[in-house]
Amino acid sequence: MIQGMEIRHLLLVVAVLLSLVLQGQGGITSSYVRSEWPAVDIPLDHKVFKVPKGYNAPQQVHITQGDYDGKAVIISWVTPDEPGSSTVHYGAVQGEYDFVAKGTYSNYTFYKYKSGYTHHCLVSGLEYNTKYYYKIESGESSREFWFVTPPHVHPDASYKFGIIGDLGQTFNSLSTLEHYMRSGAQAVLFLGDLSYADRYQYNDVGVRWDTWGRFVEPSTAYQPWLWSAGNHEVDYMPYMGEVTPFKNYLERYTTPYLASKSSNPLWYSVRRASAHIIVLSSYSPFVKYTPQWRWLDEEFKRVDREKTPWLIVLMHSPIYNSNEAHFKEGESMRAAFEEWFVEYRVDVVFAGHVHAYERSYRVSNVRYNVSSGDRFPVPDTSAPVYITVGDGGNQEGLAGRFMEPQPDYSAFREASYGHSTLDIKNRTHAIYHWNRNDDGKKVATDEFVLYNQYWGKNIRRRKLKKHYIKSVVVDWIAS
Ligand SMILES: [Fe+2]
Fold first, then answer.
1. Which residues lie closer than 8 Å to 294 by C-beta, 6 or more apart?
2. How far is ligand 1, taken at its centre, from the CA of residue 212, in Å?
């Protein structure tokens, strides 16, 4: 009898220890101190900002997905001196541009700065999985680039996304961009805060939007960057007479929002390969009954995990963040949307804003309702993983002060510059990797297998749990 009690006691201890392991208590705060360049912007005369040769040559070329399912791109560029042509010539063979698409252009002022002519051209009806070459302008000033279309939307389509946030235009930003371009990723999920031009005043704001466009062109001209807006895109500067939010950003960076029935380019969604990507705006109204709230309500219903197993949400201000910088700034969006993230079993939520890296366990705080007494995030296998990748390298520098002790929801955090990749293999598995800019040295980094919330590990985990409970009960009876 005593032996039986001891065994039961032992089993209880084992069960408690196992549950702690399964719940993943005890995160890691990396204390590694990294060398970094000063957080100052690259000088204007540096070669990364070089203006292309030729009169009125197109510059700041960037592409983004142009429709819901990846059969179109929007090609954008700026001509500095005069409107020029908004036409794109393209084809599947280099130098043989059998097809033509006609775009539109516009220009604007910001304080006394006069912008160049921003062109946006929708190129649609493309074949999947195809390399296209394209040419902008003609004669000596023409420029040629290429891009590759994604595979058709399919549950097992593999695809590698890059994730970059808060990039700016410092030498640290350049390091991030160069590292990213060697990653082999096929498209960027950008988490907001592009140029940090709003750190300047008067005409320099527009100038630094232009330099950023040229700075990122070696990547943005060749693969789509899916944009989301951060606080540095707001550009609300009443002392200069500029009070229209997102003016510079919306003139220059476009999104296929109409294709996902959104009424505003700041929130939208696309499907690409096996992923359904929802982009939210932290700096637009999102409480109940606002256009963004109503759109998201409908968009979640349109998600079909049989076609796109991977459900990814992008936003700028993180919901789970244990850094002193921007602590709790995502709380209002958590209150508005977390319940849906859990209900629709979102795989991962990427955010930026905090200039550091942090990953959460799968947790939720949906039982908190002001009076319930349930105030804390708890392990929740239906919840997304929340990942903050606000470490692109802008001029504001790193956010190095984390809240202590590390909260239970925080799995890994480190204040270094870098970017992430999400390498989707099939409907069940994706390899996630955070790449700090000085990877290559023998230091720990953050890499793990992300199991799909609809097709992946949880189904097996439930089975395992059942078997585990069964074996405990069998042992108990046997004792
Ligand atoms: Fe930000």
1. none
2. 16
| 351 CA → ligand 1 middle, Å | 10
Centre of ligand 1 from the C-alpha of residue 195, in Å: 11
Strand partners of residue 29: 413
CA of residue 232 to ligand 1 center, whole Å: 6
Q: Yes or no: is domain 23-46+156-463 CATH 3.60.21.10? A: yes
Query: From ligand 1's centre to the CA of 328, what distance in Å?
Result: 13
Write the CB contacts of 463 (distance below 8 Å, at least 6 apart in sequence).
Answer: none
Total Cβ atoms within 10 A of residue 429: 16
Chain mean pLDDT for the chain: 91
* 326 counts as catalytic: yes
pLDDT tens string 30-74: 866 666 678 899 999 999 999 999 999 999 999 999 999 999 999
| Domain ranges (residues) in the chain | 23-46+156-463
Please state whether the predicted TM-score (pTM) of the whole model is above 0.70.
Answer: yes
Residues bordering ligand 1, an ion, CB closer than 5 Å: 193, 230-231, 353
Using alpha carbons, select from 396, 389, 390, 378 the residue that is nearest to residue 338: 378
Which of 119, 276, 316, 326 is an active site residue? 326
* pLDDT confidence of residue 445: 81
pLDDT tier, 138 (very low <50, low <70, confident <90, very high otherwise): confident
pLDDT at position 13 is 47
Q: Are strands 275-279 and 268-272 parallel, antiparallel or unpaired?
A: antiparallel
